[in-house]
Amino acid sequence: MTTKSSKIVMARRFDGMPQVSDFALQEETLAPLEDGDVLCETVWLSVDPYMRSYSRNMKEGDVMMGQTLSKVVESRHPNYVVGDLVLYYSGWRDQYVVKNPDDPRPWPLQKVNYIPEGHPSTLSLGVLGMPGATAYFGLNEICKPVKSGETVVVNAAAGAVGAVVGQLAKSQGCRVVGFAGTDEKVEYLRELGFDEAVNYKTMGSLEDVLCSLCPNGIDIYFDNVGGSFSDTVMSHMNQFGRVSVCGCISQYNNTGQSIGPRLQGLLISKQIRMEGFLVHRWKDQWMECMEALGALVREGKMKYRETTVDGFERAPEALIGMLQGENIGKMIVKCQSGGSGGDGDGDGEQCKQ
Ligand SMILES: NC(=O)c1ccc[n+]([C@@H]2O[C@H](COP(=O)([O-])OP(=O)(O)OC[C@H]3O[C@@H](n4cnc5c(N)ncnc54)[C@H](OP(=O)(O)O)[C@@H]3O)[C@@H](O)[C@H]2O)c1
Predict the structure, then answer these.
(1) Among 65-74, 221-230, 308-317, 337-346, whose mean pLDDT is lowest?
(2) Domain co-membership, 269 together with 309
(3) Which atom of ligand 1 is nearest to the CA of 331?
(4) Which residue has its alpha carbon closest to ligand 1 atom 2?
(5) For residue 315, what are the domain limits?
(6) Is ligand 1 within 6 A of the CB of residue 325?
(7) What are the residues whose beta carbons fall under 8 Å from the beta carbon of 94, sequence distance 6 or more?
(8) Does residue 5's CB lie within 6 angstroms of at least one atom of ligand 1?
(9) How far is CA 159 from the centre of its chain?
(10) Which atom of ligand 1 is least distant from the CA of 278?
(11) Are residues 318 and 255 in the same domain?
């Protein structure tokens, strides 16, 4: 039997900030399952900043890329049964067939059976998924907090990655200064235990703020934003400072080349280690990271929020909203009723858009 499914494609190349009219909803027909195949129905869809930067390599008509949390609705594979919850880089599709679930390229079909009881399965797209792992490995493997009291600066701090970075750094005895784009987000950072939280849109001079809040300099900079913000932060780094270049969201919608200061002299004189990374570098340590973060969630030491948008067809709005800062915590799209996620119980809270 064939199945009709919907997909969302990039209908027109983005010019600066994407517009809803750049996307199109299309139908496709899925072939009947063969032995070894699994048919999945998307319950939640993740929108992430990398979609904007990677879209530069896409052609018009390509399906939007991305990870989904889905339910198995038919299986001809011995390891999957109807009802299993799974993560997959399916792209923006409401139903899809996985031909070879165990193929690790680019990522296998992954069962979601590791979320602590009482917490939503949607954490597998946030704290207990790719963004959480980004915070965990970016902080522990690149920034390596070495002694208690080190000063950490993180931006996009109320987002999926930043909120985890700040809480992990606090749990390791660091002093954490977070920057975010609204007063509500600043309030949230205080609730999470950040030592200082600043609205970068209303703060005035970043130079003055750093002199005041980081008078002894910065030991660790977890950079999610890049651009001129980072240019200023870099000049406040201490000797042997560590900079994890995680993202540069301030640049993703740029249409031209952006020029910054030359950093080599500073890196030498301050003996700074600055390293970019892609989280999938630590693919082999993934479940170890999930266990560590899961333990913190279970103990109430890792709080989270999710911002949800209702309706598969509204994924473009969710992506644009996230790029414009409308989310607190992970931005996700609810595609089907009946998913056990996004209900924000326990230490989580939910904001609906
Ligand atoms: N290297 C990796 O493997 C990897 C993996 C995942 C994510 N990342 C990167 O990590 C960063 C955060 O990702 P996320 O998933 O956690 O997203 P997120 O923080 O949940 O959402 C994006 C946030 O970025 C902020 N933002 C948008 N434009 C900005 C600008 N011009 N200046 C400053 N802030 C801006 C907005 O918050 P405000 O209201 O605070 O502006 C927005 O809410 C992104 O740069 C992403 O590309 C990297």
Answers:
(1) 337-346
(2) no
(3) 20
(4) 278
(5) 3-114+305-352
(6) yes
(7) 5, 6, 7, 41, 42, 312, 335, 336
(8) no
(9) 7
(10) 3
(11) no
CATH number at residue 139: 3.40.50.720
Average pLDDT, the chain: 94
Task: Say what the pLDDT of residue 200 is.
Answer: 98
Return the H-helix or E-strand segment holding 50. Answer: helix 50-54
Look-up: residue for tokens 């949230």?
188
pLDDT, average across residues 74-90: 97
Shared-domain flag, residues 170 and 139: yes
Predicted pLDDT at 341: 53
The whole-angstrom separation of Cα 211 and Cα 118 is 43
pTM listed for this prediction: 0.96
Question: Which one, of 127, 141, 128, 126, lies nearest residue 244 by Cα?
Answer: 141
Average pLDDT score over residue span 237-255: 97
Check whether residue 160 and residue 257 sit in a common domain. Answer: yes
In a domain, 19, yes or no: yes
* Gap from CA of 321 to ligand 1 centroid (Å): 12
Residue 156 in contact with ligand 1 by CB distance below 6 A? yes
For residue 108, the domain's CATH number is: 3.90.180.10
Q: Is 226 in the pocket of ligand 1 (CB under 6 A)?
A: no
CA 217 to chain centre: 28
Residue 217: inside a domain, yes or no? yes
> Residues 64, 137: one domain?
no
| Same domain, residue pair 171 and 258 | yes
For ligand 1, whether the C-beta of 165 sits within 6 Å is no
204 and 326 share a domain? no
- Ligand 1 atom nearest residue 249's Cα: 45
How does residue 336 score in pLDDT terms, banded at 50, 70 and 90? confident
Ligand 1 neighbour 166 (Cβ under 6 A): no
Q: Report pLDDT digits (tens) over 251-307.
A: 999 998 888 999 999 999 999 999 999 999 999 999 999 999 999 999 999 999 999
How many structural domains comprise the chain?
A: 2
